[in-house]
């Protein structure tokens, strides 16, 4: 028998009702005037990485933006409010996609479209270029990360912002919790670009209802040097690095603004 109490809201309309559809699964805290609502903890609607991006490229007024993995729409909202002409955000996690739609309604976003589907599949189809591409928290969830960078390079006309974890044995080995996720390394070769892949198994994180990693039970990480070599290999000559955090609790990470 269906438990109707799980499908209907008895209280008067309120933004918290919408957020509570995914109660306990939110990662982001919402911006004002919704910052007093119960959601997540990460400040993704006022993210220093996006502020840095906008500072580096002189803003995004009238730019077209492609975002992969918007999660809950925090970066999408920042880019729209900064003047982007449009933001096309592709999300393959169905729960994350629905959370993005909740955010779009709450914040009244009008130049952002959230599309439910796989980013790799989207990039493989014929399509237009974008002035700015954004892939934050995506690369280290890929089975074939170089494929993602190669495909993005074909659709990114001016700038690519990448934030990702990377593999560094000297940093990771002394951290047993992080190191336990890595089970093997192997040589990779994509379109002639040789690199090393480090298998990362999600393990018990798959049990969290709010899991927002990749669609497989494992992914492959790359080294910092291989990521930078790969971006140059695919035509990004200007690489600017910030937020290079070797002590990140989930493994070393950095942001790269790659421009042509």
Describe this structure in words.
This protein is α/β, with parallel strands linked by helices. It contains nine helices and ten strands. The strands form two sheets. It has a seven-stranded mixed beta sheet, sandwiched between helices. Strands 6-7-8 form a three-stranded antiparallel beta sheet. Helix 4 links the parallel strand 2 (86-91) and strand 3. The mean pLDDT is 94.
Can I get a quick summary?
Helices cover 28% and strands 27% of the residues. It is α/β, with parallel strands linked by helices. It is globular and about 60 Å long.
Ends apart, CA distance between termini: 58 Å
Determine the strand fraction and express it as a percent band: 25-35%
Task: Give the strand line-up of the largest sheet.
Answer: 3-2-1-4-5-10-9
Number of continuous helical runs: 9
Most strands sheet: 7 strands, mixed
- Low-pLDDT parts are none
Fill in the keyword field for this structure:
single chain, alpha/beta, 9 helices, globular
Topology readout:
Elements: H1 15-19, H2 48-57, E1 64-68, H3 74-81, E2 86-91, H4 94-107, E3 112-116, H5 119-124, E4 130-136, H6 145-155, E5 156-165, H7 169-172, H8 176-179, E6 182-190, E7 193-201, E8 218-221, H9 224-233, E9 238-245, E10 253-259
């Amino acid at each position: 028998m269906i438990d109707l109490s799980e499908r209907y809201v008895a209280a008067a309309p309120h933004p918290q009702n919408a957020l509570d559809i995914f109660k306990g699964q939110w990662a982001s805290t919402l911006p004002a005037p919704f910052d007093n609502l119960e959601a997540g903890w990460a400040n993704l609607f006022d993210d220093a990485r996006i502020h840095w991006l906008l500072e580096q490229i002189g803003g995004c007024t009238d730019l077209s933006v492609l975002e992969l993995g918007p999660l809950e729409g925090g970066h999408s909202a920042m880019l729209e409010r900064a003047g982007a002409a449009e933001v096309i955000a592709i999300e393959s996690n169905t729960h994350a996609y629905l959370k993005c739609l909740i955010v779009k309604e709450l914040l009244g976003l009008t130049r952002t479209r959230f599309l439910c589907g796989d980013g790799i599949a989207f990039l493989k189809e014929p399509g237009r270029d974008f002035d700015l591409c954004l892939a934050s928290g995506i690369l280290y969830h890929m089975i074939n990360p170089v494929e993602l960078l190669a495909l993005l390079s074909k659709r990114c006309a001016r700038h690519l912002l990448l934030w990702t974890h990377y593999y560094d044995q000297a940093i990771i080995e002394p951290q047993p919790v992080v190191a336990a996720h890595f089970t093997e390394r192997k040589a990779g070769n994509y379109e002639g670009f040789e690199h090393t892949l480090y298998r990362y198994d999600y393990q018990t994180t798959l049990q969290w209802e709010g899991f927002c990693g990749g669609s497989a039970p494992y992914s492959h990480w790359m080294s910092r040097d291989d990521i930078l070599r790969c971006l140059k290999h695919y035509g990004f000559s200007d690489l600017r690095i910030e937020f290079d955090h070797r002590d990140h609790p989930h493994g070393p990470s950095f942001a790269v603004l790659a421009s042509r």
